[in-house]
TrEMBL record:
SUPFAM superfamilies tied to this protein: Alpha-L RNA-binding motif
The organism of origin for this protein: Candidatus Roizmanbacteria bacterium CG_4_10_14_0_8_um_filter_39_9
Phylogenetic classification of the source organism: Bacteria, Candidatus Roizmaniibacteriota
Protein family (similarity comment): Belongs to the universal ribosomal protein uS4 family.
Domain called Small ribosomal subunit protein uS4 N-terminal: residue spans: 2-98
Name under which the protein is recorded: Small ribosomal subunit protein uS4
Alphabetical keyword list: Ribonucleoprotein, Ribosomal protein, RNA-binding, rRNA-binding
InterPro entries: Ribosomal_uS4, Ribosomal_uS4_bac-type, Ribosomal_uS4_CS, Ribosomal_uS4_N, S4_RNA-bd, S4_RNA-bd_sf
PANTHER family hit by this protein: 30S 40S RIBOSOMAL PROTEIN, SMALL RIBOSOMAL SUBUNIT PROTEIN US4M
Cross-referenced NCBIfam families: PRK05327.1, rpsD_bact
Gene3D superfamilies in alphabetical order: Ribosomal Protein S4 Delta 41, Chain A, domain 1, RNA-binding S4 domain
Known function: One of the primary rRNA binding proteins, it binds directly to 16S rRNA where it nucleates assembly of the body of the 30S subunit.
GO MF, any single term: rRNA binding
Amino acid sequence: MRQIGPKNRLARREAVDLGLKTPGTKSHANLLKKLNVPPGQHGATGRVKKMSERGRQLRETQKLKHIFGLSAKQLKRYFEEAAQKPGNTGLFMCQFLERRLDNTVFRLGFAPTRAAARQLVSHKNIKVNDKVANTASFRLRPGDIVTFADEKTQKIPAVERALENKEGIFPAWLERKAVVGKLILEPSSELIEKQILLRLVIEYFSR
C-alpha cells in the first residue's frame, strides 16, 4: 500500500528531498528549510539513536520506495526479477524503475512530480508510440516515443508550468524535442545512486 499523508514528513524522516513536492511551491520551500530536522514534536531536540545495519538497509529501501511511489511488494518484485538476471542486480533493478512510464514522463519534464506523472498516465493523457497508455508501470524499451494524448493536456496548469521550465536537464538515456520524448538508451543507475545507497537495498532484499 502506498504511503498517504504529509509528504514533507516522509522527506524529513529520510532527511532527503524525495521529489514528492513541486519545486518552487511554498510547501517545497518549507521542506528545504526543515529537511535536516526530523518530524515530530521533539524532532529538533530529540536524541539521534544509533541505527543497526538492518535499520540502515530498511531506511534506504524506504527511501527508494517513496521516491518512486511504490508499495513494498512492488519494489520487492522488481528486485526478484532483477536478481534472476545474470549480472549486476542493482543496475537491472534501476533500469526497471527508470523505464516505468510514470517515471519517464517525470524525467522528461512533462510533469512536476512522479505523482503528477502517474495521474497523467492513469487519466489516459499520455501516448506511447502513438497509442494511449494508462498503466503507470508500463515498461518502455529503447526507441519508444512518449507524447501527450492531445493538446488540451498541455494546457493543464501544472503541466504547462513544467513545460515552461527551460532549466531541466534530461538523463543521457532520454531525448526530448518540444513535447515529444524518446527513450534512446538503457538507463543507468547514476541518478538513483545519487540519492540511495543501492547496496543496502540489495542487501535488505537478499536476506
